[in-house]
């Protein structure tokens, strides 16, 4: 009693001995606590206390964390039952979500998501989106685990938004979050493997650091991804499926790999190839489909070809998966070990699979419950590749304390893995087991001895001797009312002996004789029947048995009336069989015995027996009551027929029984279905190899792809744009896009015009669904129903959305109040279509026939970051040769003083700025033929990004003053980055670092009209708009495209919600400069663009913004 | 994912239910479960995975308490089982043992713990050291406080530092006046001796338990003198895999407090510290039993808590057993247990007596298996030796301690 003082014992014992309601309304937290504890006690004991709901909900606002926690516990239990009252608590959760204490935020989110109300699903989603970017790891983790709840609640509505958040969390820096995100992925969108592909390498690397429960799920996801992406591994156990099914292809394939495989198969020893085949097929397509199909002998529909296999030795993705899962085999958590072992089992080359053995065997020492599960998995492994476990047979020796199921499993496994070298010690063990008090287990042991001998015929004699010795033991044959179990053992002994004899009857002649001798003492009907069956079956075997037949049959006939029905039937059969092969003198005796037995049987009490007697009587070999008739009836056709029937019925059944594995079901290692032996809801076999197409791959490797694309547009392609041959390649520029599930089938038509050839060119636009954080951040869902609006004001929601927990950005832009779920596409490379605008530096009229044009180059100067590269074209329009052309800085001759006065802000901080010349001296052009064009790259340092630079052009000895106008669009260089990084950076540049303007955009109309006019191809309007926007931007500024967000929920004509992101950094200061274009309006009309620039350099940013707005308004160059 | 967790007492009463997801599981599943336990007996209780008509059940039984978890969808069964084991470990750690009363008395803590340990059916925080920071275990002080003031909160109002730091198992930068780290080797010996008296197998499963109270962010390295004898290992998440792969060195940043650093297995040991020689001869409806226990290999330290236990075969009517040392008890379920304690210097403990068989039986044909228990302080029987424990940037006062202990695991002698 003393120990119970101070605990909550009294509350559990008498939860309702005081009235709870007043306590709930009390002013004191301690009394509230007590009341809530009492309610909890009632819940624990299974009472319904939901009638206190309104009072409890009121307390959600309590400041005490303990009260809060208890209220949450209560709410979660009843929220579904009392939806209307539960809504009352929403406001409080929202307040808590803004609490500075991460624990409070996490609890609020967990509870809010746990209240299963359809109407609040949009709110929860917004909250989850916000918490997914919380500074606290714990809160982000809770956000990840809240996602399945939201998904479960709102079903299809918000799938894409949820998947975006999943993608974002999968990319989180903290391993703890990634683990929870993996769990969310598995329950929200297990098929969206492209989401994994994007981060595959990173996920593999982070895997050992992920918390253990996340590891279990993540391992499975990665395995599925690799198979869907690269297919199965040639060297692995799964390859046997191809070896056996389409061995011809291996032959004509003539590749070295298949040879290697054969070697390795030999190396790793024997493995039951047919069984492995079944198992691996079951893994691939689920046993139900496979088995149903194999029964109708139509296996064609699932054909694997060589292309669906990859080599584990050369494929990096496979290697990294195996490498990162192998340390997990040392995990403390048995589920992790088994999951990792499963990956190796399916994916690892056969010779490497053995590394999973020791860790799996170690699992046998963990709790009894997991021991059973592990053994069930080993059972399949050991059957498929016995050689793996053969050296570890001692681990399957049995402790008396183990449960019967475990003992039975261990015995079965021992029978698979016994080898010639280990069998003797295994038999020694078996001898001990037979004397175990658990008789069912002893019977099983006897059965397993039979199985072992079937595998290892060498041991047959020793085993049979041992088994015969057992039949001699008093305890099994003793007369007293034998217990069922003992009888079972004896039957099992005879059965095992029978199966051993069947393998090689001639060498076991003496065994049969011994058994027949024991007939007198063996009293168990089933065992007797079996011995008698053997007499009939092997009646003509060897020398001795035929001679003793007469005696045996006489003995049987004599005892016939007192036998059990089972035995009687066998006696009849046996006599028949003996008659069949009998000749000479014995025949007469046998016939007499037979007719005697038939007479007895025909008036037996058992109707089966009577029927059998009648049937046998009609059979020709038995129906020879009068010998003389034999020859006469011989020529009758039906008599021949009867002979055949007799042959069939009594003849030798030498046909082998098919192994039982075909009726068995196999599921993936470590799955629940493998334990319960039926497909549990939600069980998925491995994905089809290589089902993740190349299109997806682009998405999958989106990050690197995007970087490369950015590099292209930055450097290489500018050069090629001067190449006229590229102009035409731009026209057949296709869009290679894969439509993910989320973006729906309405875009399915687009992929039709994707041509294979285009793959070589970099894809223009790919849809992916990168987690779109800023979308989630902004605004309340319009779809939140009206009744919700009554209960809570939108203001409240906005206010908590705005006040960020912790320190992060105070003033987030509220761009739109409409939450648009959107997919994101990334524009790869429009570089080939980018035409840089060229400006005139000197027109032929004023330059004596010399025409000088320039355009800004996207090249980056290698000398100094203050220099801008300009491409200058000199063209001789006159009819004479112009010589000695050179460009110099006019002011370079003068003192620097005037230049310093105009020195610009961005230079002031740089110490080295003075060393950089205004113009890197140009290599002069010696002479220019008439009509000839020469190109030079100039590197210029503009003193200001708006003011023109005065230069002097010398040609033919004359000096011509010229002005070079800067273009601020080329004071930046592309800064490739991820969307996540972009959003992250953007959120850190709010308020005064953010400038926005709007303008209209018309370029796309031309594009669309052209499209409609000249081709039958139905091109997506959005795509056209994106293209023309991107083109416009990239031709006027040195940027890097980060992403394109497509609206999906809206109708096809409305481009609102389209969003392009560009990133760059200022050349001189390396300060990032982020540009976002938002589109509003109808596709066919001029669009309203909102341009937003985030940049720390205020002046620069504003000027850039103006510049962008200007060139976007400019009509397109025709 | 798991949908619900039930805690059942050994009489089948549902002590606690915790719904984890919106898909509520009705209590009637427990009735179904218990009906089957009653009708099928122990064989049902030893099934860890059960497919009921409506749900898949995972069950783990600890100290008479049945932990039952339900799910309706495919999930790794080991995950469910391992989680339930974790729950039972944490609970018995918190409540100082597991039994019906202690769970009922502390049901609020159990609820709070379950709520932290699992969220929406997926395990959330299972590291014991971190849970301790979130929910204070009941102790004398809090009990007294609650009696005196009528108020005590065991819910911590701040998030444990560990969830903030980059090392999820360690609270951020604790401070200790005395820096101490203790390493214990705890080994369990499994052995099977067959009817001929031959040692069939003998192996050791050991754990390295560390109790660390170190300030700051200590980086420890533990190395063994003879790591080659280790057959297989398993690690706490804090152990870095690569140093072990290359040099067999344990490099880790420990959690604060007590934890299991690694467990290992050493196979094919040559001998056991004790011998047990059972002799059973039976005729004429009787069976004479004589069991001798003695020291075979002196481990150098005293062997204590020696016990011997065996289940009498079902065909025995009565037993009359006596020993020359220690006490013999025959329990209700026909288990005979002989508590020896230490082996006296002057004599060899022996158990002798006769068993009376059922009337029709002439001889005994099934033979019991003897389970042996013992404990040896100060010795790791496997021979594993810790070479050294190093601390990067060691504080001025660091106390390191090592201990070892061996006890019997599954030690069976067949007769």
TrEMBL record, chain A:
UniProt keyword terms in alphabetical order: Cytoplasmic vesicle, Golgi apparatus, Membrane, Phosphoprotein, Protein transport, Transport
Low complexity biased stretches: 711-723
A family per Pfam: Adaptin_N
Key word Protein transport present: yes
Topology of the protein relative to the lipid bilayer: Peripheral membrane protein
Any one biological process term the GO annotation gives: vesicle-mediated transport
Cross-referenced InterPro entries: AP3_beta, AP3B1/2_C, AP3B_C, AP_beta, ARM-like, ARM-type_fold, Clathrin/coatomer_adapt-like_N
Origin: domain of life: Eukaryota
Subcellular location: Cytoplasmic vesicle, Clathrin-coated vesicle membrane; Golgi apparatus
Biological role: Subunit of non-clathrin- and clathrin-associated adaptor protein complex 3 (AP-3) that plays a role in protein sorting in the late-Golgi/trans-Golgi network (TGN) and/or endosomes. The AP complexes mediate both the recruitment of clathrin to membranes and the recognition of sorting signals within the cytosolic tails of transmembrane cargo molecules. AP-3 appears to be involved in the sorting of a subset of transmembrane proteins targeted to lysosomes and lysosome-related organelles.
Protein name as annotated: AP-3 complex subunit beta
Organism, scientific name: Gossypium hirsutum (Upland cotton)
From TrEMBL, chain B:
Annotated localization: Endomembrane system
Top-level taxon of the source organism: Eukaryota
Keywords tagged on the record: Membrane, Protein transport, Transport
Stretches assigned to the MHD domain: 178-414
A cellular-component GO term for this protein: cytoplasmic vesicle
Keyword Membrane on entry: yes
GO BP terms, alphabetized: endocytosis; intracellular protein transport
Keyword Glycosyltransferase attributed: no
Primary location: membrane
Pfam families named in the record: Adap_comp_sub
Family membership: Belongs to the adaptor complexes medium subunit family.
Full protein name: AP-3 complex subunit mu
Species assigned in the record: Gossypium hirsutum (Upland cotton)
């Amino acid at each position: 009693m003393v120990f119970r003082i101070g605990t909550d014992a009294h509350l559990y014992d008498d939860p309702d001995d005081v009235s709870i309601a007043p306590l709930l309304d009390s002013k004191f937290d301690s009394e509230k606590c007590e009341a809530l504890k009492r309610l909890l006690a009632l819940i624990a004991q299974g009472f319904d206390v939901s009638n206190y709901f309104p009072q409890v909900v009121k307390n959600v606002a309590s400041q005490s964390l303990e009260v809060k926690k208890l209220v949450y516990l209560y709410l979660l239990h009843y929220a579904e039952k009392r939806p209307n009252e539960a809504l009352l608590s929403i406001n409080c959760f929202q307040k808590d979500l803004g609490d500075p204490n991460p624990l409070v935020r996490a609890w609020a989110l967990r509870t809010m998501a746990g209240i299963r109300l359809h109407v609040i699903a949009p709110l929860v989603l917004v909250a989850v989106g916000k918490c997914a970017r919380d500074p606290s790891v714990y809160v982000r983790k809770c956000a990840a685990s809240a996602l399945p709840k939201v998904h479960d609640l709102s079903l299809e509505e918000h799938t894409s938004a949820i998947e975006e958040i999943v993608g974002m969390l999968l990319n989180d820096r903290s391993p703890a979050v990634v683990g929870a995100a993996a769990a969310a992925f598995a329950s929200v969108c297990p098929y969206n493997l492209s989401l994994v592909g994007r981060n595959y390498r990173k996920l593999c690397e982070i895997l050992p650091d992920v918390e253990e429960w996340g590891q279990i799920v993540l391992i499975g996801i990665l395995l599925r991804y690799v198979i869907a992406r690269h297919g199965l591994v040639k060297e692995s156990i799964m390859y046997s499926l191809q070896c056996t099914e389409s061995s011809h292809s291996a032959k004509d394939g003539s590749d070295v790999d298949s040879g290697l495989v054969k070697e390795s198969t030999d190396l790793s020893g024997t493995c039951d190839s047919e069984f492995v085949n079944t198992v691996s097929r079951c893994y691939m397509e689920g046993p139900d489909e496979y088995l149903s199909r194999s029964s109708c002998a139509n296996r064609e529909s699932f054909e694997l070809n060589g292309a669906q296999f990859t080599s584990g030795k050369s494929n990096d993705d496979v290697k990294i998966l195996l490498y990162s899962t192998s340390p997990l085999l040392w995990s403390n958590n048995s589920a992790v070990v088994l999951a990792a072992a499963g990956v190796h089992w399916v994916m690892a080359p056969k010779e490497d699979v053995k590394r999973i053995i020791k860790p799996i065997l170690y699992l046998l020492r963990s709790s009894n419950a997991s021991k059973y599960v592990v053994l069930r998995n080993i059972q399949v492994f050991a059957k498929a590749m016995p050689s793996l476990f053969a050296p570890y047979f001692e681990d399957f020796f049995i402790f008396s304390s183990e449960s019967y199921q475990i003992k039975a499993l261990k015995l079965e496994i021992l029978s698979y893995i016994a080898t010639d070298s280990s069998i003797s010690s295994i038999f020694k063990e078996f001898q001990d087991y037979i004397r175990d008090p658990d008789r069912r287990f002893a019977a099983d042991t006897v059965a397993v001895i039979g199985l072992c001998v079937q595998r290892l015929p060498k041991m047959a004699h020793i085993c049979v001797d041992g088994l015969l010795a057992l039949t001699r033991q008093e305890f099994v044959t003793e007369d007293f009312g034998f217990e069922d179990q003992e009888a079972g053992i004896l039957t099992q002994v005879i059965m095992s002996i029978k199966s051993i004899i069947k393998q090689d009857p001639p060498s076991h002649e003496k065994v049969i004789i011994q058994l027949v001798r024991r007939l007198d003492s063996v009293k168990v009907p089933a065992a007797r029947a079996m011995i008698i069956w053997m007499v009939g079956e092997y009646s003509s075997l060897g020398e001795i048995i035929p001679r003793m037949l007469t005696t045996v049959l006489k003995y049987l006939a004599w005892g016939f009336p007192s036998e059990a029905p089972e035995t009687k039937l066998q006696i009849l059969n046996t006599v028949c069989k003996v008659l069949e092969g009998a000749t000479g003198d014995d025949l007469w005796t046998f016939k007499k015995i037979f007719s005697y037995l038939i007479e007895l049987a025909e008036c037996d009490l058992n109707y089966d027996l009577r029927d059998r007697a009648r049937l046998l009587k009609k059979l020709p070999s038995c129906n020879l009551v009068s010998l003389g008739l034999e020859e006469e009836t011989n020529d009758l056709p039906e008599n021949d027929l009867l002979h055949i029937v007799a042959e069939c019925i009594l003849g030798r059944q030498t046909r082998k029984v098919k192994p039982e594995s075909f009726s068995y079901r196999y599921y993936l290692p470590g799955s629940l279905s493998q334990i319960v032996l039926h497909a549990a809801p939600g069980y998925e076999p491995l994905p089809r190899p290589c089902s993740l197409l190349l299109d997806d791959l682009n998405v999958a490797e989106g990050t690197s792809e995007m970087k490369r694309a950015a590099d292209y547009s930055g450097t290489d392609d500018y050069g090629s744009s001067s190449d006229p041959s590229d102009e035409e390649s731009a026209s057949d520029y296709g869009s290679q896009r894969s439509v993910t599930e989320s973006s729906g089938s309405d875009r399915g038509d687009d992929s039709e015009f994707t041509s294979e050839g285009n793959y070589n060119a970099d894809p223009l636009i790919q849809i992916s669904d990168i987690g779109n954080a800023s979308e989630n951040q902004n605004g309340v869902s319009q779809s939140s129903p009206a009744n919700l609006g009554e209960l809570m004001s939108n203001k409240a929601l906005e206010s908590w959305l705005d006040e960020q927990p912790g320190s992060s950005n105070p003033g987030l832009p509220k761009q739109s109040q409409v939450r648009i779920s959107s997919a994101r596409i990334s524009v790869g490379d429009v570089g080939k279509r980018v035409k840089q605008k060229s400006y005139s530096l000197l027109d032929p009229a004023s330059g004596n026939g010399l025409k000088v044009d320039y355009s800004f180059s996207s090249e980056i100067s290698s000398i100094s970051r203050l220099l801008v590269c300009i491409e200058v074209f000199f063209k001789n329009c006159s009819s004479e040769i112009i010589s000695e052309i050179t460009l110099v800085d006019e002011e370079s001759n003068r003192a620097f003083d005037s230049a310093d006065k105009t020195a610009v802000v961005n230079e002031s901080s740089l110490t080295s700025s003075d060393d950089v010349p205004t113009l890197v001296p140009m290599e002069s052009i010696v002479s220019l033929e008439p009509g000839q064009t020469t190109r030079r790259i100039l590197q210029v340092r503009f003193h200001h990004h708006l003011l023109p630079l005065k230069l002097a052009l010398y040609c033919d000895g004359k000096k011509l003053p010229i002005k070079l106008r800067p273009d601020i669009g080329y004071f930046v260089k592309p800064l490739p980055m991820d969307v996540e990084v972009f959003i992250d950076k953007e959120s850190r540049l709010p308020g005064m670092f953010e400038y926005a303007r709007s303008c209209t955009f018309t370029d796309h109309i031309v594009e669309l009209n052209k499209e409609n006019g000249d081709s039958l191809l139905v091109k997506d309007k959005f795509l056209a708009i994106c293209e023309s926007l991107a083109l416009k931007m990239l031709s006027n500024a040195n940027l890097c495209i980060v992403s394109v967000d497509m609206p999906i929920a809206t109708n096809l004509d409305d481009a609102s919600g389209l969003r392009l992101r560009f990133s760059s950094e200022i050349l001189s200061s390396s300060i990032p400069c982020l540009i976002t274009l938002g589109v509003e309006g109808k596709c066919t009309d001029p669009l309203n663009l909102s341009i937003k620039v985030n940049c720390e350099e205020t002046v620069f940013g504003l000027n850039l913004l103006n510049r962008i707005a200007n060139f976007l308004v400019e009509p397109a160059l025709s | 994912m798991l949908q619900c967790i039930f805690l059942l007492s050994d009489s089948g009463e549902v002590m606690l239910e915790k719904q984890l997801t919106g898909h509520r599981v009705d209590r009637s599943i427990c009735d179904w479960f218990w009906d089957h336990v009653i009708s099928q007996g122990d064989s049902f209780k030893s099934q860890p995975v059960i497919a009921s008509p409506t749900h898949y059940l995972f069950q783990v039984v600890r100290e008479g308490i049945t932990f039952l978890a339900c799910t309706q969808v495919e999930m790794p069964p080991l995950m469910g089982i391992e989680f339930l084991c974790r729950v039972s470990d944490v609970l018995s750690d918190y409540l100082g043992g597991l039994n019906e009363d202690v769970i009922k008395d502390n049901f609020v803590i159990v609820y709070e713990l379950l709520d932290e340990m699992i969220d929406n059916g997926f395990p959330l925080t299972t590291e014991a050291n971190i849970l301790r920071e979130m929910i204070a275990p009941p102790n004398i002080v809090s009990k007294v406080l609650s009696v005196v003031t009528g108020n005590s909160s065991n819910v911590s109002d701040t998030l444990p530092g560990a969830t903030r730091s980059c090392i999820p198992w360690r609270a951020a930068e604790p401070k200790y006046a005395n820096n101490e780290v203790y390493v214990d080797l705890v080994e369990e010996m499994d052995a099977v001796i067959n009817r001929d008296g031959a040692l069939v197998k003998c192996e050791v499963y050991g754990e390295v338990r560390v109790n660390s109270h170190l300030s700051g962010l200590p980086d420890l390295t533990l190395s063994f003198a003879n790591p080659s004898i280790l057959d297989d290992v398993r690690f706490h998440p804090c152990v870095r895999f690569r140093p072990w792969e290359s040099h067999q060195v344990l490099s880790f940043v420990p959690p604060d407090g007590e934890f299991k650093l690694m467990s290992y297995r050493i196979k094919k040991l040559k001998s056991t510290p004790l011998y047990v020689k059972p002799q059973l001869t039976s005729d004429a409806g009787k069976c004479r039993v004589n069991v001798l226990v003695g020291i075979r290999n002196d481990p150098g330290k005293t062997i204590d808590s020696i016990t011997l236990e065996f289940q009498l075969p079902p065909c025995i009517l009565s037993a009359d057993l006596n020993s020359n040392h220690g006490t013999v008890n025959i329990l209700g379920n026909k288990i005979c247990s002989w508590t020896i304690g230490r082996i006296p210097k002057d004599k060899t403990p022996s158990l002798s007596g006769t068993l009376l068989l059922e009337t029709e039986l002439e001889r005994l044909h099934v033979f019991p298996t003897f389970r042996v228990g013992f404990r040896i302080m100060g010795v790791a029987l496997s021979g594993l030796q810790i070479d050294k424990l190093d601390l990067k940037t060691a504080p001025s006062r660091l106390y390191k301690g090592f201990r070892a202990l061996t006890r019997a695991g599954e030690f069976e002698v067949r007769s």
